[in-house]
Design a protein that fits this description.
This protein has helices spanning about 30-35, 40-45, and strands at about 1-5, 20, 25, 55, 60, 65, 70-75. It is α+β, with helices and mostly antiparallel strands. A five-stranded mixed beta sheet has the order 2-1-7-4-5, with no helix packed on it. Strands 3-6 form a two-stranded antiparallel sheet. Helix 1 runs antiparallel to helix 2.
Length: about 80
Amino acid sequence: MITIQYFGSLKLLQPSGSEQLAWSGGTTDDLLAELRRRGPDWDEALRPGRVFKLALNQQLLHAAAPVQAGDEVAILPPVTGG
């Protein structure tokens, strides 16, 4: 299992703000692909080219990284406001 934390507009897709997901291993790219398969809203929000950041175990990522059981992945859309 991994924990996924959703922030900002992504909470519209997962109103609780987080979820536990059964995970057999792979990379953050694999995880995003799996989430996009959930449907058109997920696909649009997480499609390649969209602006968002990923953090793995509270460390901001700059490239794909391996995700293992017990890890926490946070998906952070751009911050807006004034």
